[in-house]
Amino acid sequence: QDHYLPLRLRDKEIDINKKYEELRGSVKSILNLVVVGHVDAGKSTLMGHLLYLKGIVAQRTMHKYEQESKKLGKQSFMSRGVTVDVAHRTFETSSKTISLLDAPGHRDFIPSMITGAARADVAILVVDASTGGFEAGFETGGQTREHAILTRSLGLSELAVAVNKLDSVDWSQERFKEIVTSLKHFLKTVGYRDSDVTYIPCSGLTGENLVEPPRDTALKNWYSGPTLLEAIDNLPVPERAINRPIRFCISDVYKGQGSSMCVGGRLETGYIQNGDRLMLMPQGDIATVKGIQAENLEPGYSFAGDHVTLNISGIDPTVLHVGDFLCDPQEPIPQTTRIQARIVVFNITVPIIKGSQFDFHYQSVNGMARVKKLVSQLHKSTGQIIKNRPRALVKNSSAVIELEFERPLCLEVYKNYKELGRFMLRNNGVTVAAGMVTQIN
Ligand code: GDP
């Protein structure tokens, strides 16, 4: 193939917005939800109970764990059952299908929660309203602040805050107000306006105000706002970028019929139809789409946000890798060995310095990255520069850095492609920072 010829993606354009409306107008949009909050805030119990009320965790499973935890003398009858059951669950709200990212409840949940946050469209922040519980999560050492900074840094523009365990303080409105006031003040400094945040008094243990409006008069007397489920339903759906150039990130490769190949993955932006010619990046080879399949979706089309399998021909199987991209040949994804990025550093023990090496992760892409330069340190909440060219970055700091990759990676700037500009830096399997690409050099 001669890639210097302007290769056309398709011979004839169609009115894709009309087609989308026709095929998907009545299909609920899928939102990826991450649940964050201090350890023991009640995340597992809350989500477990919600799934249970939605009929997703079977009664029998619940009963079994109830018996087991009684034997163990454990207060939370749900946490164990749920921990096992929760991973990648979906449930329905009135206008959306919610896909729950990662399983809360494990002690090692935090790193996966962070991975979850980087892929999430929306977030619930769970806080513990019990006496001293909120304070433990909110003050020094607590994760409430860190997690709110993280969701904000990763571009989640609205939050639902579950003010949980309010049963333990007899549904005290005063306690609820006290917590909301503290959080409002703090969340504003992080960049959430009051109108971006909904506070929902609830109990993961009793199930109060999760799916059905409050029954307990102690809460009913003063609260008439949304249930947790309604609040989730009200979170904004990210724009489906069907009118943008194609970016299909490959997460699975296997042999199809005859000489064709199958690639699974997520179409981040644009739309694909049968017969399209796509450019494989970073290789530059051209593939032709012979078939498009996804569960519950009409064959022949794929739109931004879909997880689909493409049947492609014309490509040498040996050049296909997980982490590669299929793109519009006229506007392929850039590849680079150097980027500038804004990062949030997690609870690390060894400071990040010039020359530090990390595993660079995003989507299905993996690579080695080296810190080329520490450009500036930023104020964690306001994002203002507090120091130019810092010598080291310690835990919980924010910064602008330059990274250099061992081999070229396909990336986009966060501002242009939200979906493709967020990444994670890891070390020995531990996530040390999350960030977004601000510049491709
Ligand atoms: P996680 O670490 O955030 O996932 O928290 P868990 O769901 O494991 O809950 C931590 C503890 O809080 C457990 O002992 C639960 O029984 C208790 N708990 C969770 N939700 C509630 C609640 O709504 N009310 C009360 N009173 N206790 C709760």
Short key terms for the protein model shown above:
binds guanosine-5'-diphosphate; GTP binding; hydrolase; 21 strands; 6-stranded antiparallel barrel; cytoplasm; T_Tr_GTP-bd_dom; alpha+beta
The CA-CA distance between the termini, in Å, is: 28 Å
- The tally of strands reads 21
Poorly predicted runs:
72-88, 103-109
What multimeric state do the chains show? single chain
Bound molecule kinds, no repeats = guanosine-5'-diphosphate
CA-atom Rg in angstroms:
23 Å
Can you walk through the features of this model?
There is one protein chain. The protein is of the alpha+beta class and 441 residues long. It has 10 helices and 21 strands. α2 crosses α4. The chain starts with 15 loop residues before the first helix and ends with a strand.
Write the layout of secondary structure elements.
Blueprint: H1 16-24, E1 29-36, H2 43-53, H3 59-72, H4 79-85, E2 90-92, E3 96-100, H5 109-119, E4 122-128, H6 133-138, H7 144-153, E5 159-164, H8 173-190, E6 197-201, H9 217-220, H10 228-233, E7 247-255, E8 261-269, E9 271-273, E10 277-281, E11 286-293, E12 301-303, E13 307-313, E14 325-327, E15 335-345, E16 357-362, E17 365-378, E18 385-388, E19 398-410, E20 422-427, E21 430-440
Parallel strand pairs: 1-3, 1-4, 4-5, 5-6
Antiparallel strand pairs: 2-3, 7-8, 7-14, 8-13, 9-12, 10-11, 10-14, 11-13, 15-19, 15-21, 16-17, 16-20, 17-18, 17-19, 20-21
Helix pairs in contact: 2-4
The structure holds guanosine-5'-diphosphate (GDP).
Guanosine-5'-diphosphate binds at residues 37, 39-45, 75-76, 79, 104-105, 164-165, 167-168, 203-205.
